[in-house]
């Protein structure tokens, strides 16, 4: 039987069958080759603390409001008036007391308290200059040690590393809270 007779009989020729079988196999092999030669994909970034939709509590953050001198109150009002509405992805929240000296962000709440006592720490403790502001880290909080009025920032463990959160306040502190008369050793120069 010739090829003409096979074509007329309605059955596919051997060439046609070979082509129909070989073509998908060749396409799959080519796809597999290109997938194998493609550079590896970058790992997906770790989600941030506030990644995805979150429900932000509507209740104010509980904070104490120590009595301030007139000068401290003036400085704290200046600072609070310039704080951002958001720190990274953490929105600002209401506080229970000291609206002109306290601020809170996110859940769990990162808090900032202006005024109160100056930190007491051994002279051998480390101090950290973060973007021009000198901080002491202790008791779960970071407190300025080179400012006329101390400012204390409490960073929950969920926001590690804490110093990377504290630094967000440095520029506002430099602009609104004057230097202390005496700057502790290790704090560098005045900003």
UniProtKB/TrEMBL annotation:
The keyword Transmembrane helix applies. The chain crosses the membrane at residues 12-34. Keywords: Membrane, Transmembrane, Transmembrane helix. This is DUF3515 family protein. It comes from Catellatospora citrea. The lineage of its organism: Bacteria, Bacillati, Actinomycetota, Actinomycetes, Micromonosporales.
């Amino acid at each position: 039987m010739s090829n003409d007779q096979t074509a007329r009989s309605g059955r596919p020729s051997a060439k046609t069958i070979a082509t129909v079988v070989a073509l998908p196999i060749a396409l799959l092999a080519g796809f597999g080759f290109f997938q194998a030669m493609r550079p590896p994909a970058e790992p997906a970034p770790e989600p941030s603390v506030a990644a995805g939709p979150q429900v932000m509590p509507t209740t104010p953050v509980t904070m104490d409001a120590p009595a301030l001198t007139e000068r401290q109150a003036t400085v704290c009002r200046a600072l609070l008036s310039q704080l951002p509405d958001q720190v990274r992805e953490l929105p600002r929240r209401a506080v229970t007391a000291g609206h002109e000296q306290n601020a809170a962000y996110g859940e769990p709440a990162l808090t900032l308290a202006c005024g109160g006592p100056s930190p007491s720490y051994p002279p051998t403790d480390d101090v950290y200059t973060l973007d021009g502001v000198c901080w002491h880290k202790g008791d779960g909080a970071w407190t300025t040690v080179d400012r006329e009025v101390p400012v204390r920032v409490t960073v929950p463990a969920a926001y590690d590393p804490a110093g990377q959160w504290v630094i967000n306040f440095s520029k506002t502190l430099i602009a609104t809270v004057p230097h202390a008369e005496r700057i502790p050793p290790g704090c560098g120069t005045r900003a």
